[in-house]
């Protein structure tokens, strides 16, 4: 009986070791959304925000990720075009919150557009 117990224990340890050896640990990720104009009247505004976002994201990820209370998180940025229109900015905010499940959203940029988005995200309790 003791030999069977030892055999089962060794088998379990070997199984766990084999599983661990072949499965890479999953990196935790923080998703951030960018509600920016990539088309419309001011695509350069959105392009510059995306360019700057990629630089900082790459720097942080190459350094091992963002350290939050001792845990490293890779950054994932989701860029969505709001066409510099208030209605589009609301739709983008909805997509980022409900579909993409971002932790936070940056933007929208451009005068007039943020006010409509602020009303929507306040109703969604997303700040």
What does it look like?
The protein is α/β, with parallel strands linked by helices. The protein contains four helices and four strands; from the N terminus they run H-E-H-E-E-H-E-H. A four-stranded mixed β-sheet has the order 2-3-1-4. Strand 2 and strand 3 form a beta hairpin. The chain is globular and about 40 Å long. The relative contact order is 0.18. The N terminus is likely disordered.
Shape: globular
Question: How many strand segments?
Answer: 4
Order of helices and strands: HEHEEHEH
Class inferred from helices and paired strands: alpha/beta
Widest sheet: strand ordering: 2-3-1-4
Low confidence ranges = 1-21
Number of helices: 4
End-to-end C-alpha gap: 61 Å
Helix fraction, binned, reads 40-55%
Largest sheet: 4 strands, mixed
Radius of gyration: 22 Å
If you average the pLDDT, what whole number results?
78
Per DSSP, what share of the residues sits in E-state strands of 2 or more residues? 15-25%
Quick description:
With 127 residues, the protein is of the alpha/beta class.
Chain-wise SSE layout:
Elements: H1 2-22, E1 28-36, H2 43-62, E2 66-68, E3 71-81, H3 86-99, E4 104-106, H4 113-123
Parallel strand pairs: 1-3, 1-4
Antiparallel strand pairs: 2-3
What labels describe this entry?
disordered N terminus, 4 strands, 4-stranded mixed sheet, 127 residues, globular, 4 helices
């Amino acid at each position: 009986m003791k030999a069977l117990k030892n055999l089962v224990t060794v088998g379990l340890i070997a199984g766990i070791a084999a599983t661990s050896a072949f499965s890479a640990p999953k990196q935790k990720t923080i998703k951030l959304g960018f509600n920016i104009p990539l088309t419309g009247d001011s695509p350069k505004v959105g392009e510059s925000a995306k360019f700057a976002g990629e630089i900082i994201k790459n720097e942080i990820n190459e350094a091992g990720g963002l350290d939050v209370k001792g845990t490293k998180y890779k950054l994932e940025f989701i860029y969505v075009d709001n066409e510099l229109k208030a209605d589009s900015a609301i739709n983008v905010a909805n997509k980022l919150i409900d579909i993409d499940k971002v932790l936070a959203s940056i933007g929208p940029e451009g005068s007039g557009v943020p006010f409509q988005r602020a009303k929507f995200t306040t109703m969604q309790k997303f700040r």
